[in-house]
Design a protein that fits this description.
With 131 residues, the protein is mostly helical. Helix content is 44%, strand content 6%. Residues 3-126 form the DUF3597 domain.
Length: 131
């Protein structure tokens, strides 16, 4: 499992990951009529939809002591992932950046890219965290 998957699981819950790969036997509608869940184009059920990421993270233990809204290091600490350079570099590579050096600019990019990917996976993320 990758670093991004660990972050996503911490926010959405592990149940979302298990259901993300469940095939949908019906044609590919935009919403599963049985569950009301969104359907991916490949027919799999998108388990998580419209999760308020800021509220979820704000409610985690220690959130009030960390600058997780803008810091990738603090975000990783909040969700219980080692925020070492190696893990941040791996996360950057998962999100498409091969030249990650760990600079302040790289960390700002990494936080925004992580939040953008969370949004693509069904999270409601404030624009201030993705722009």
């Amino acid at each position: 499992m990758g670093i991004f998957s660990s972050i996503k699981d911490a926010i959405f819950g592990k149940e979302a990951k298990a259901q993300d790969t469940a095939p949908n036997p019906s044609p590919t509608p935009s919403v599963d009529p049985r569950t009301g869940r969104a359907i991916n184009q490949d027919g799999s059920v998108r388990a998580v939809q419209n999760v308020d990421v800021e509220t979820k993270l704000s409610g985690m233990d220690g959130a009030d002591k960390l600058n997780w809204r803008t810091s990738i290091v603090d975000l990783m600490k909040l969700v219980g992932i080692d925020s070492s350079y190696e893990n941040r570099k791996e996360l950057a590579q998962e999100l498409g950046r091969t030249d990650y050096s760990g600079s302040a600019e790289d960390n700002i990019w990494l936080h925004k890219a992580t939040m953008q990917e969370i949004a693509k996976n069904g999270g409601r993320v404030p624009a201030s965290m993705t722009d």
